[in-house]
Amino acid sequence: MPQVVHEFDWPDRVVVGTVGAPGARTFYLQARTGARSASVVLEKEQAALLAEKLDELLGELTADPGTGITVPAQTPAELLDDEPLDQPVEEEFRTGTLRLGWDPRTAQVVIEAYPLPEPRDDGELAFGEIDDEPDEVLLVRIPVGTARAFVQRTRQVVRAGRPACPFCGRPVDADGHVCALPDDV
Fold first, then answer.
1. What's the CA gap between 80 and 71, in Å, rounded?
2. Which CATH number does the domain housing residue 115 bear?
């Protein structure tokens, strides 16, 4: 079966956003060009790590004078996006693997999201099997200014969840919290 590629080259919008209340949020990576959009589910940790690694990549591009690229140190105001996800949010797949790269030909950051592998007949997940070609991929190419805005927004979305307990660091729910203090306190 041919692979379905949800490709967005210079998209109008690419964001991480959530659906649901803190503590029960579902994270999405969403890209849109015109009326066409695609949304894939991410774990909160995947979103946070994507922002961190993308920020590191932008730092490397800034530090390398050979790239000829000027990376904005701050998010350009015209690229700020605090709007909710485009509706309706229709999940293409749940993300298993993310790849991040740089395309020097187009001077764009490349984000690839691949689905979580389906369990095999024996119930095990099929990670890294040579003949397994994912059925789908989300492929997004964005310029460095958009990448800087993406990092800022993603970090804000990740932090917007439940507050952390000042004693144990675990999330505090709206209906209370049982603190799991370390043994040495």
1. 16
2. 3.30.2450
> What residues have CB less than 8 Å from 175, skipping those under 6 apart?
none
| Residue whose token pair is 């790590």 | 49
| DSSP characters over 91-146 | EEEEEEEEEEEEETTTTEEEEEEEEPPPB-TTS-B--S-TT---SEEEEEEE-HHH
Instruction: Look at residue 145 and tell me if it is in a domain.
Output: yes
Residue linked to tokens 């949020």 = 25
**Residue 24 structure tokens:** 């029960």
Residue 140 within any structural domain of the chain: yes
Looking at the domain assignment, is residue 154 inside a domain?
yes
Torsion angle of the four alpha carbons 168, 171, 173, 176, in this order, in degrees rounded to the nearest 10:
0
Domain that holds residue 8: 4-159
List, for residues 111-160, the tens digit of each pLDDT value. 999 999 877 666 665 555 544 678 899 999 999 999 999 999 999 999 99
Q: pLDDT by residue (tens digit) across 9-22? A: 999 999 999 999 98
What is the β-pairing status of strands 91-103 and 36-42? parallel
Tell me the pTM: 0.84
Cβ proximity of 95 and 40 under 8 Å = yes
